[in-house]
Each structure stands twice: as structure tokens, then as C-alpha cells.
């Protein structure tokens, strides 16, 4: 298949013709990679069973992992799911934006979208291009991240092209994503909620609206959540992963150099805040922004993993971020990218 690559601005009114063509591709059952504020999504109609099947095939995604359905405004959730007052309370504060809510699905959503389940994940993105495309197509859009399954999520259209060129109809390039990690996914539990995947909407932000936002055990302890003993080989749990080996070190940043020292002569990179770059002469620096700026690190993270591969690195070292607050989402992605192994003073341990 010849994949059309179209570059536009972030203002949909400048490029209605391109977006109308993309909408037409969606309506006739094709796939279009589109920008959202989190990561690029691989969009197809959420109403056509074949579109979802094509999404799984293009990504090489296991068919038991359900897709998120994107709507152009919160009220449109009615069309695809059974909502409740709690949903609208959250929507008022966080939508459009990087929050996905699991709801009971309506019959119009095919089983292929929900992997056979009776719930559907609903998200209203804030990116103007994504929203306009949903409006123009007249279909809610099923859209997972637009990467090959297992590789780092795409935060630019060039990343999408690396993974999916020749597999999908169209890629719409409207520049890099502003958040860089995927949306927060929550399940509603009465008045409260449980975070199934952390994102830019943090537990503390959710608790401005709901009494309690619990964090699912799987978020920070993936090996245990898979029902496997923690000492099992971590490679099984590698997601979002670069080809290079990512080694996460549980130590303060200024001590990272001691762990890296043995690697002289190897093609090694360090993912490190800007002000520490001078501690690693001769190594490839993958700069994460100012120390403590988790939003900037999150924005760059997936892109840095791809840069490491482009640079032909064998190994990347990074410091384990705290599993809380503004770095919870980054923690969740980075431990998976590292195969859930952490290097401590006493060697590797699996989490
Ligand atoms: O930011 C995002 O959410 C991006 C952009 C494109 O919107 N999309 C995204 O989709 O990250 P994907 O498919 O890569 O991740 C969807 C996540 C998966 O962890 C999936 O298991 C979960 O949402 N999910 C989807 N439907 C679900 C459901 N019905 N119940 C529980 N989890 C669900
Ligand atoms: Mg994904």
C-alpha cells in the first residue's frame, strides 16, 4: 500500500481540504495516523468492525488488547457508551484532554474494538486536528498509539512513518505532540475511580473532582500484576522498548557515573537532565530537560528512545524516577521499556 504523507498546521481551518480527504478515508474503512496532544494515534472508524481488524493487523497488536474510542466532545460519549453523572463531572474538568474513561459499551461498537468485552474506553482529545477529523468523518474514531506493537509510542509523524509506512492509507503530520505520553485511563468505582494507566491527569488532579483516585497495582508492579513471580525474567514485560537495552538505575543522579563506568568502549548513552551532561564525557547524552521537570522529560521520553536506536547505541542508562505525582506516568512507561528490571547496589532486581 502507498501511504500518503500530508503536512499541515495545528489550525484545522487552514487545511479543511486535507482533513476532508482524511475523513473520507475513515468513512470508507481506511486508516489514518493523526496527531493528538498525547501521542500520534492510528485512527479508523469505531463503528466499522473491519477498521478495527485493520488496526490490529497494521500494528501487529494482540487482538485481546482493546482500543480507545475518540469523540469530538464529551456528550458524544452517549453515542458509544452508557454514561453517568460521574463521567460528566470528570469531563467538565478534564475534557477535552488526556483522560480516558472506561464505560459500559453500546451495541453500535463492534466486539473487534473492545476485544470482546462489554466496556469501551472513551476519550475526547484536545488536539484541534483530531477533533476536527472526528467531526468531519461523522464517526467516533478507534485509535491506539500509531506505533508497531511493543515499540516506543510515536510523538512525531516521522516516528509513525518509521513504523507504519506502507501499512496504512495516510499519515497527517501536524508537528510534535505536546504531552508525549499516552492518556490517563481510569475505571469508575461509584464516586471514586481507579487509574489503570497513569498519564498527564495525575491522581492528585483527579482527587480535585472525585473523593479517591486509587492507582491499580499493575501501574507500578507489572510483573506481579501479570500473576508471575517477581523473579521471573523481565524481558517478557518489555513494552515501549527501544532495540537498545535500557538499564534503570536506582540511585541519585550524581551517582549514576559510578554505574556507567564499566562500559568504556561500548556504544552507551545516558538519559539525563541537562545539568548533569558534563559527568559523562565520551558517552552519548540523551537530554531530558531541566532536572525535576517531569513534564519536559515525559514530552521527550519516547523520542529519546528512538534517537538512541538511530544513533546505534547498545545500551542506555537512566535513573529510576519516583513512582508518584508528575513522574508516575513516566515511571510506568520507563520500567516497561526496561523490561521491569532495576539495577541497584546489589545487582538487578525485577519489579
Ligand atoms: O493517549 C492515548 O490514549 C493514545 C492516543 C492515540 O489517544 N491512545 C492510546 O491507545 O494510547 P493504546 O491502544 O495504545 O492504549 C489503550 C489502553 C491500553 O492499555 C488498553 O488496554 C486500555 O487502554 N483499554 C482500552 N479499552 C479498555 C477497556 N475497555 N477496559 C480496560 N482497558 C482498556
Ligand atoms: Mg499503545
What oligomeric state do the depicted chains represent? single chain
Number of helices: 13
How would you sum up the major sheet?
12 strands, mixed
Helix content: 25-40%
Computed over alpha carbons, the radius of gyration is 20 Å
Q: What proportion of the residues form beta strands (DSSP E)? A: 15-25%
- Give the low-pLDDT segments: 229-235
Beta strands, count: 18
What ligand molecules are bound, each kind once?
Answer: threonylcarbamoyladenylate, magnesium ion
Helix vs. strand class = alpha/beta
Average residue pLDDT: 93
Through-space gap between termini: 41 Å
What spatial form do the alpha-carbon principal axes imply? globular
Q: Brief overview, please?
A:
This protein has helices at 16-27, 49-59, 77-80, 85-94, 111-114, 128-137, 157-164, 203-206, 217-220, 222-225, 256-260, 294-310, 328-337, and strands at residues 4-7, 32-34, 41-45, 68-70, 81-82, 99-105, 119-123, 141-142, 170-173, 184-189, 192-197, 213-215, 245-249, 268-272, 284-287, 315-319, 341-344, 347-350. The chain is an alpha/beta fold and 351 residues long.
Amino acid at each position: 500500500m502507498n501511504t500518503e504523507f500530508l503536512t499541515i498546521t495545528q489550525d484545522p481551518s487552514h487545511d479543511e481540504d486535507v482533513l476532508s480527504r482524511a475523513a473520507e478515508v475513515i468513512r470508507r474503512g481506511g486508516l489514518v495516523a493523526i496527531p493528538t496532544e498525547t501521542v500520534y494515534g492510528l485512527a479508523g472508524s469505531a463503528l466499522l468492525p473491519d477498521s478495527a481488524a485493520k488496526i490490529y493487523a497494521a500494528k501487529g497488536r494482540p487482538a485481546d488488547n482493546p482500543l480507545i474510542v475518540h469523540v469530538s466532545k464529551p456528550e458524544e460519549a452517549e453515542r458509544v457508551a452508557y454514561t453517568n453523572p460521574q463521567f460528566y463531572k470528570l469531563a467538565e474538568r478534564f475534557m477535552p484532554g488526556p483522560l480516558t474513561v472506561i464505560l459500559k459499551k453500546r451495541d453500535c461498537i463492534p466486539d473487534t474494538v473492545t476485544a470482546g468485552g462489554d466496556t469501551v474506553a472513551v476519550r475526547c482529545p484536545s488536539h484541534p486536528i483530531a477533533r476536527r477529523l472526528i467531526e468531519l468523518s461523522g464517526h467516533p474514531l478507534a485509535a491506539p498509539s500509531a506505533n508497531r506493537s511493543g515499540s516506543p509510542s510515536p510523538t512525531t509523524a516521522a516516528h509513525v512513518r518509521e513504523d507504519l509506512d506502507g501499512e496504512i492509507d495516510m499519515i497527517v503530520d501536524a508537528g510534535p505532540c505536546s504531552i508525549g505520553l499516552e492518556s490517563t485511563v481510569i475505571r469508575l468505582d461509584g464516586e471514586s475511580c481507579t487509574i489503570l494507566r497513569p498519564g498527564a491527569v495525575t491522581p492528585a488532579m483527579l482527587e480535585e473532582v472525585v473523593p479517591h483516585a486509587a492507582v491499580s497495582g499493575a501501574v507500578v508492579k507489572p510483573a506481579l500484576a501479570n500473576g508471575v513471580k517477581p523473579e521471573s525474567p523481565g524481558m517478557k514485560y518489555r513494552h515501549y522498548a527501544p532495540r537498545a537495552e535500557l538499564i534503570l538505575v536506582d540511585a541519585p543522579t550524581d551517582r549514576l557515573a559510578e554505574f556507567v563506568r564499566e562500559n568504556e568502549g561500548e556504544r552507551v548513552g545516558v538519559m539525563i537532565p541537562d545539568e548533569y551532561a558534563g559527568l559523562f564525557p565520551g558517552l552519548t547524552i540523551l537530554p531530558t530537560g531541566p532536572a525535576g521537570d517531569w513534564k519536559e522529560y515525559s514530552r521527550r521520553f519516547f523520542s529519546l528512545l528512538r534517537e538512541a536506536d538511530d544513533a546505534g547505541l547498545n545500551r542506555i542508562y537512566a535513573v529510576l524516577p519516583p513512582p508518584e505525582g508528575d513522574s508516575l506516568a513516566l515511571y510506568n512507561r520507563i520500567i516497561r521499556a526496561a523490561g521491569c528490571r532495576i539495577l541497584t547496589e546489589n545487582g538487578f532486581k525485577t519489579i
